[in-house]
Structures are given as C-alpha cells and as structure tokens.
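Field notebook, page 294. I keep forgetting to write these up properly, so this time I am using the form the group agreed on. The chain and the ligand, zinc ion, are recorded exactly as supplied. Prediction of the bound pose follows.
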Amino acid sequence: MTEILNETPDKIKKTANAIKKLRPAYSKILDFYEKIFTAQEKSAIKTEIKPAQLADDIISIKAKEKFPLFCLSEFSVDVNSSRKLFKKICKIINKSDNHMSSVAEVIFAANENKKIDFNELYTALLHDDDASFGNIASKLKTDRDALAFITYNSIKPSLSIFAESASKYLDKDNPWDKGYCPVCGNSPVISTFESDGKRFLTCSFCWHKWTVTRLFCPFCDNREAGSLHYLFSEDEQEYRIDVCDRCNKYIKNVDTRIITRFVYLPLEQIATLHLDIMAKEKGFESGVPLEFQV
Ligand SMILES: [Zn+2]
Ligand SMILES: [Zn+2]
C-alpha cells in the first residue's frame, strides 16, 4: 500500500509537469521535490531491509488494543543505501535555490570528511531523541531542522519498505478505522477518496495507507456530522479540506476519482500548499506533526 515504491521516476516527472501546467506558481517547489522524490524512488530499488517480524500473541494483543504494530525505533533502515541517498539529497538542495542550500553544503562537507556517524544519526531520529539529534547538529555546526529534513528523507525508502512488510500483520477483515497509522502510530499527512468512494489516510511518517470511514476526524476521533465540515474551491473540485470544530484541525483530501492524470501523493501534498494557507486563514491548524510539514 506504500505508493512511493511502486511508481517510476517517469511518472513522477509527468505528474509534476501536469501540475505545473495547471498551477505555474508551484513550478519552483515542484522542480525541487521532483528531484527529491525521483532520488528516493531510485534508492528504493536498491534498498534492502530486514522484513518486519512479530510473534502471533503480540499481533493479537496489538489488534485488540488498537496499538500500532511497531514503535519507530523498531523500524529497520538500510544504512548503506540511505547514506548514499543522504549525499544525493544534500547535492539536490545545494544546487537548488533553496533556503537550506548553504546548510546542505556544510552537511555535505561533513559527510565527505567522515564526520557523520549514520548509525547514531538514524538512531537519534527513530528514537525521537531530540537531545541527541540536537547534539549531532551542533557537533556538525549545522542547522537542526535542515539536518532532520535530509535525514528523514534519506531513510524514507527504508521506512516505506519496512511498513509494507509490516502491513502483512494487519487484520484485513477488521478495518483499522482509527486516525493514527496502524503500522507506526503517526498522524496522517493526507486523505484520499478512491474507487467505490472509499476513504483512505496516508501516514506522515511511513506512508502506509489505510482505509477509514468517510465522516470522521482523524485527530480527535470526532464522528458527529454537525461539527465536521469541509472547505473547497469551485475551481478545484478534486481537492477539499476536511475541518473539525471540536479539535480545530484540518486535513487535505484528494478525490482521486476526479483526477485523470496519475496521482502521486507526495507531490499532491506539496502542490496543495494553497489549501493549507486557506485552512489556516480560517483559523484551523494542521494535524500533521511539525517536523513533517513542508
Ligand atoms: Zn506509519
Ligand atoms: Zn477533530
């Protein structure tokens, strides 16, 4: 169910071009992310990780209690392929006209000088260990957020492949129907309507996609129709913003049944930043954790 691994760089390019034609204001940011996503796709093909493993009794307890299958610290990462992708992402950022360009140059140089311990770096990120991650950033004399962006994006192929291997443990007969990811427990980054009108949420961390009821706030589990609404623009019927009056959060929704071109969710997430602005202007907050916001 993890789309990022199944699609080719060619399709990403065509999709990015189609969106750029529709919304030229996104050209620069899409040029940047198209390169990042393409590098991730190419890296994914060469990424090898230890498949997820869980004992039967643990699986049934987790399913019963609605606990996600794995903690982030249990995710496997192919350090070798991630390290190569890390270097590539530094180069992409450095060559682009991006606010992180000069920082990426410092990080790239630190890597060339073998000053980065990737096991330590990836462990700090996966253990959500802010203090250690901050220490690594200050040792490298670099910006913490830029380092986090590059680090996360360099392990994203591993995370998606691990999540895909983990999804075999999910109960296909009992839909999860919760607002947090059944594999890793993180919040969804985007919502979609797909064939038969089914609604799916996609995880902001491991990009696993799971099905949920249509009328429901993933952030506070509100299921009361009266306090759930959506915002939309007549010009863009394929998108809407689902908002919740109870927790004041929103999630963007893509109706993939209306879009005739190929849909690549990481690109949709980037190419709909105007919807984030619209939701925030109306007083709603993003439900996506800060570190995963663009
Ligand atoms: Zn997840
Ligand atoms: Zn809510």
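OBSERVATIONS:
- The pocket of zinc ion (ligand 1) is lined by residues 163, 181, 183-184, 186, 203, 205-206, 208 (CB under 6 Å).
- The mean pLDDT is 93.
FOLLOW-UP: compare against the apo run.
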